[in-house]
Design a protein that fits this description.
76% helix, mainly alpha, single chain, 2% strand, 223 residues, globular
């Protein structure tokens, strides 16, 4: 057990990066969407929650408490999904919990990235985590809107939670990377503006990240 804890502390950003990648893109290897919804999704959230724990090691007490509360929420809610998914308003609240959870992790990642002085594999992994967390935040924010009003997007498969999630992962990924194929489009003023905001955030993150990495590299080579 001690070896596992030591590994998580040493490789925390690499573990978080692997957890984010499998959470966002494991659908590549799955065709059974109900199985994904009822089994893979809760397991994914447990893995992601555990991977995020090490990011907060040594932080203040209130952050640790907040982390555990959010972790319990994001794990418990999908486990309860088969029982309460038909309750009106449940899915938007579930997505909102995820948005808060990912913002909390993203903030800690950014605090780590702006610390001056060095560049190593932790910095690279944390930078990649930040990019994937932007996608996670945008996915669940837009998903919460979509569950409230299915007409806010055109081209999104709303036949089930897994199909909706995967379509929005695709849409948010190509939006934040400024590709934009146009097969899924926002259909209301609100979703158009939010999509625009995330596109700008993706470009801003890239520019700031390049500046941080150059600064750290310059600091290392000059020392």
């Amino acid at each position: 057990m001690k070896h596992i804890i030591a590994f998580l502390r040493k490789q925390k950003y690499e573990v978080l990066l692997a957890a984010l990648l499998q959470h966002l893109f494991i659908g590549i290897f799955l065709s059974d969407l109900p199985f994904y919804t009822h089994v893979i999704w809760p397991v994914n959230m447990i893995i992601l929650g555990l991977a995020s724990v090490s990011v907060f090691v040594g932080k203040s007490r209130w952050k640790s408490i907040t982390r555990y509360v959010l972790f319990i929420a994001v794990v418990a809610l999908p486990l309860c999904l088969p029982l309460i998914r038909n309750i009106r308003g449940f899915m938007p609240y579930l997505c909102t919990a995820y948005v808060i959870f990912y913002i909390f992790i993203f903030w800690e990642i950014m605090r780590f990235l702006v610390k001056p002085g060095y560049i190593n594999t932790d910095i690279i992994s944390a930078a990649a985590c930040g990019y994937l967390l932007l996608i996670e935040i945008s996915v669940f924010l837009l998903q919460s809107l979509l569950y409230r009003d299915p007409t806010v997007f055109k081209g999104v498969d709303i036949s089930g939670p897994a199909a909706t999630y995967m379509d929005l992962v695709y849409f948010c990924s190509i939006t934040i990377t400024s590709i934009g194929f146009g097969d899924i489009v926002p259909n209301t003023a609100c979703t158009k503006l939010i999509t625009s905001l995330f596109g700008i955030a993706g470009q801003f993150y890239t520019v700031v990240l390049v500046g941080i990495l150059i600064s750290k590299f310059s600091s290392r080579t000059s020392s």
